[in-house]
Amino acid sequence: MTRAQQAPSGLVIVDKPGGLTSHGVVSRMRRLAGTRRVGHAGTLDPMATGVLVIGVEKATRLLGHLALTEKEYAATIRLGQSTVTDDAEGEVTATAPAAGVTRQAVDAGIAALTGPIQQVPSKVSAIKVNGVRSYTRVREGEDFELPARPVTVHSFTVREVRTPQDAPDLLDLDVTVVCSSGTYIRALARDLGAALGTGGHLTALRRTRVGPYGIEGARTLEQLEESLAVLPIEDAAAAAFPRWDVDADQARLLGHGVRIEAPALAGGPNAVFGPDGRFLALVEEKGGQAKIVAGFAS
């Protein structure tokens, strides 16, 4: 089998297992796809499971644009304990009884964290501060603050409220969150716990959707070992971005990097397809013309 056959350009939707880093998944996929041109759209913490979008060959150029799309998570928030990492992998730093927290109070706290909000990311994160990862500064014992940044929580709903059998003073909330890129679910758990006066952290996190790619279409690494399922780049682009079909002359001009007259395109990147159905580029409308933001014709 040739290298091109082993590594077609496209996306692989992986159901990431817990305990493995996103980079670890990329390393496995490089071996399976037979190419080093593999990347991912949007990191998942090692504790988290679920949808990790992997790009192979030319589709790696799609990843930066896919990373900006809406995401959906299923999570469990534990009230009554705070941790240094805002999740179950970190040391408990404070405790406070949560058994008396009412559903009304929970709903009010969640409402305050829904919509456009200013969120301070978790300190144990990959965000860079003066060129150094935030988690590195934490490990070195540095005292610092991260600035708040705007994110949007489109919906934040409680599916179930439970008392852990082995911890009657604590309260577990099973929740579903739909949010913009850059939102930290760990930080939502932390901030909800702080608002309720109990502290809070994340004990489980599963990403169920990235843009149009849902968990129902994801495959485990074991399944991919048996059969590498790659979503062709044409199908991937058509699913994720508004589609614009052009004629042969327009396709030729775009292939040479020429800006052409554009109709009223949808906001953000639009996927351009030639008359033969080939995916040519991602473009944005600028002053009535199509500006190429990423080319795929070659």
From TrEMBL:
Instruction: Note one Pfam family from the annotation.
Output: TruB_C_2
Domain Pseudouridine synthase II N-terminal stretches = 30-185
Can you give the residue ranges of the tRNA pseudouridylate synthase B C-terminal domain? 186-229
> So what EC number does this one have?
5.4.99.25
Keyword Magnesium in the entry? The reply is no
Keyword hit for tRNA-binding: no
Which keywords has UniProt assigned to this entry? Isomerase, tRNA processing
Q: What InterPro entries does the entry give? A: PsdUridine_synth_cat_dom_sf, PsdUridine_synth_N, PUA-like_sf, PUA_sf, tRNA_psdUridine_synth_fam2_C, tRNA_psdUridine_synth_TruB, TruB_C
Active site per database record: 45 (nucleophile)
| Entry superkingdom | Bacteria
Catalytic activity from the UniProt record = uridine(55) in tRNA = pseudouridine(55) in tRNA
State the Gene Ontology terms under molecular function: tRNA pseudouridine(55) synthase activity
- Show where the tRNA pseudouridine synthase II TruB subfamily 2 C-terminal domain sits: 241-296
User: What task does this protein carry out?
Assistant: Responsible for synthesis of pseudouridine from uracil-55 in the psi GC loop of transfer RNAs.
Q: Which PANTHER family match?
A: PSEUDOURIDYLATE SYNTHASE TRUB1, TRNA-PSEUDOURIDINE SYNTHASE
> To which protein family does this belong?
Belongs to the pseudouridine synthase TruB family. Type 1 subfamily.
Under which name does UniProt file this protein? tRNA pseudouridine synthase B
Organism of origin is: Actinacidiphila polyblastidii
